[in-house]
Design a protein that fits this description.
9 helices; alpha+beta; Heat Shock Protein 90; 3 domains; Beta-Lactamase; 5-stranded mixed sheet; rod-shaped; 401 residues; Helix Hairpins; 17% strand
Amino acid sequence: MRRKSSRVVIASALVTTALALSIGGFATVSLRDSQIQNIDLQLKKIDDAVRANPDSPVSSALDAASEEDFNITIAIVSSNGRTTIINESQLEFDSLPDDSLVASALKTPVTVEAEESYRLLAQVISGGDRLVFADSLATVESTFTSNLKRVLLFTLLVDLLAIGISVLILGRNNRKLEADSLLRMQRFLADASHDLRTPLTVIKGYSELLSKNQIQSSEDRTRAYERVNSEIIRMENLIHDLLLLAELGETTRPIFEEVNLSDLVTSYSHDFSTLNPTRTLDVRIDPEITIDGSVEHLRRLIQNIFNNIIRHTEERAPVRVSLYLMGKRATLTIEDGGKGLLEDGYRDAVTALNRFDSRRSPETGGSGLGLSIIAAIVSEHGGILNLKKSELGGLAVEIFF
């Protein structure tokens, strides 16, 4: 339960982080792009003014910058590479970048990566000189960095809030689940102690009678020994099932391997048919259906289903076994023509440590935990267990692996 809660908290934190970073990052990048677009608009206005007055490019550029109050560096770069600043700004501009960037800047504004990055736009004027317009990106980059820090801080705060809320909600749910689990455990222990006490009482009673020679006839003594032996077997079955349930409840999963489920079900179906010749057995098993699982636990699963049928149905009740693939899932259905479960026993989820019908144990010699063990093994293999009424009239155990 703790592992599952931890996974939920981590998942909520990851989702929150992804959303916060995506939204915050998108907003931050969009703002930076918008600021760069504003710089480009200023550069293009000056560039358009120069193109409109080719005879006086310098004065046109200065007038446009002055009228719009643009804080832009304007310079003339001669054909021999000499740079003359004619309008200064906070940008320290001393020379042109490499020719490829300049060639691009003659068409559209480009970003020049330098100690202080800037946007550059240029055009060729008379005499082969180049008139360049440049604006610093320092403010844009500073704002971008500051906004990124805010996004990260906001993400951290949102993550802490999400983790806190998740822990609070999971804590409440876990307390409820633990309370329900404790209640089921208490009921289970009460049933188990009662089932253990009953055969012990019988064994103790007959032992006292036999030890005091109060049972005279050999026939009665034989019957008493048989009764003691049957109660011992019943106790062994209950203890074995309790140990198996405890094993299945461990957090460490057994080693899984590829299991040929078709062969396994076929083998147990054949054994069932051989040992129960009075029953009609209809077997429909598709070949070579394999799953990853514990061979021993899957054997116990199939054996428990057949044992339940033997114990709780009449000797001539028909049985049907089917195994096939439904999509990518193996579907195993074993159904009988018995009386089925009590009305409240048919449900989609079977809870471990819950006996369906406590009256079964004394009547049949079983522990009454067969279906609980089946449910635990199915859960261990990540499957789904359905209990429903069979077309044959009894119980249909349907398992999706």
